[in-house]
Amino acid sequence: MAGSSAERELRDFVVSRLRELFPTARIVHELNVAGTGSNRIDVAAVTRQAIIGVEIKSEKDTLKRLDEQWDAFSKCCHFVFVAAHEKHFAEYREPWMSDGSPSEIDLNHPAFLGVYRRRRHCWRYPTPIPQYWSRAFDPFKDVRLQPRASALLGLLWREELCDEARRHSVSVGSRATRHSMICEMVWRMTGREIAEAVCRQLRQRSFAEADTPIADEGGA
Fold it and tell me: Organism's domain of life (predicted)?
């Protein structure tokens, strides 16, 4: 895959970390958001029921587009990480912290610096941040919150939507558009069915760079 050696090194770290957290997931590189478009998830781990996206910021990158990327990825992923070089992190101190207490280390971006709930979404490289309880990520509980159903289905191509509509007995016409199919599927299917449908298709789709396709039988 094209990219600087710095990005490749960070990408390799991300893949290794995802395999530790989600050993049965399929790893996909450069996953388009909404099927096509300019926003791409750098690395995604696709389990049978969840999509975990990672945005990579190497030492040669800036954080200028992070707001836009975070918003787009959060709509269609069950969890999003930002894996960034340590140059993008800064120390942060709450006003109430005593002089003897250590500073927090956060991503140096307005949406993350000093924002407690975002700390477990950040990976620092090459020197990791100590993983105490406030930064702990649970690979089972933390991927249970469903993203927006329409955005999740928007990751699929038209033929993939048709396949899942038939599987779930959702009636769509032969000339139905992607938009109309997504609307009907959101109305007729449960959140779990939609998550499993999207994951099933992404796990078996051919990508330019990804793990070997996985054909999952049935549902969960």
Answer: Bacteria
For residue 152 the two structure tokens come to 């999740």
pLDDT in tens, 150-162: 999 999 999 999 9
With the CA atoms of 140, 142, 144 and 147 taken in that order, what torsion angle do they form, in degrees rounded to the nearest 10?
A: -140
| Sequence ranges of the domains in the chain | 5-143, 149-204
Residue 80 bridge partners (DSSP)? 53
Strands 89-92 and 79-85, sheet pairing: unpaired
Describe the strand order of the beta sheet including 51-57 as a list of residue ranges. Answer: 26-32, 40-46, 51-57, 79-85, 122-125
In angstroms, how far apart are the furthest CA atoms of the chain? 68
Tokens of 10: 């960070």
Structural domain 5-143, CATH architecture: Alpha-Beta Complex (3.90)
Question: pTM for this structure?
Answer: 0.92
pLDDT, tens only, 66-102: 999 999 999 999 999 999 999 999 999 887 777 778 8
